[in-house]
Write a structure and sequence with these properties.
about 230 residues; mainly alpha; 10 helices; about 0% strand
Length: about 230
């Protein structure tokens, strides 16, 4: 957000964050930005896991069973978007360039909501669909399900990043023309996309793989315990 607002360059912003992590990890972990982001991800995974458990129970399938569904997309999107929009509004105030705290434009909220919907769909619903389409050669390195879980959420950032940048620019430069916004978004698109991939891959890529494996093992152990 600092890069999109023009407050800091992408490299400067990343360097500043890395210095904080390495030199003052306790301060970083206790910081408000970290707490806001952690709350969004924890709540999103909690919702997705709860929907999977409820759905498998209603369908009378093993508790470890998971499948993409509209209910899962709707519930996780609702939680992620509501918390994400609050996070983004706080970040815009914290990292924006304006000395005066303005209200976040409705158009920015709409763009952020669309951005989050695309990311959630790509993180929880698309990987099971994409996995069977991947080459079997990937199995030499990792399972196709894991590969899809890592690649799909990252790849969709190419589409969702412009929505993110446009929403921020509406707040940071309320009087800019359409052409000026397009130039700013185009200028920051590649760097911001790479930065968002760097955040999404651990959160919904590797995080999704770990979450799926931990949940499956936990549910399978509960099923075995229920049989004894």
């Amino acid at each position: 957000m600092e890069n999109a607002s023009g407050r800091l360059s992408l490299i400067s912003s990343i360097s500043s964050s890395l210095r904080a992590v390495l030199t003052r990890p306790h301060t970083f972990l206790a910081s408000r930005p970290f707490r806001l982001i952690s709350t969004v991800y924890f709540s999103t995974y909690l919702t997705a896991n709860s929907i999977d458990t409820i759905s498998s129970t209603v369908a009378q399938k093993p508790a470890s069973h998971t499948a993409p569904s509209f209910s899962k997309f709707f519930a996780t999107s609702a939680v992620n978007m509501s918390l994400g929009l609050y996070k983004d509004s706080q970040f815009a105030h914290m990292f924006g360039t304006s000395a005066i705290k303005r209200s976040i434009p409705a158009a920015s909220y709409a763009l952020f909501a669309l951005r989050d919907s695309v990311t959630i769909f790509a993180s929880f619903n698309l990987p099971p669909v994409v996995a069977p389409m991947l080459s079997e050669e990937i199995e030499k390195v990792m399972g196709r399900a894991s590969a899809a879980q890592i690649m799909v959420p990252a790849a969709v950032q190419v589409l969702s990043t412009p929505l993110h940048l446009w929403g921020l620019d509406l707040y940071n430069r309320p009087t800019a023309s359409l052409a000026e916004r397009a130039r700013r978004v185009g200028k920051n698109w590649v760097g911001s996309t790479a930065a968002r991939m760097g955040r999404i891959i651990p959160a919904f890529g590797f995080g999704g793989v770990v979450n799926a494996k931990v949940r499956r093992r936990l549910m399978e152990s509960l099923e075995e315990a229920g049989k004894t």
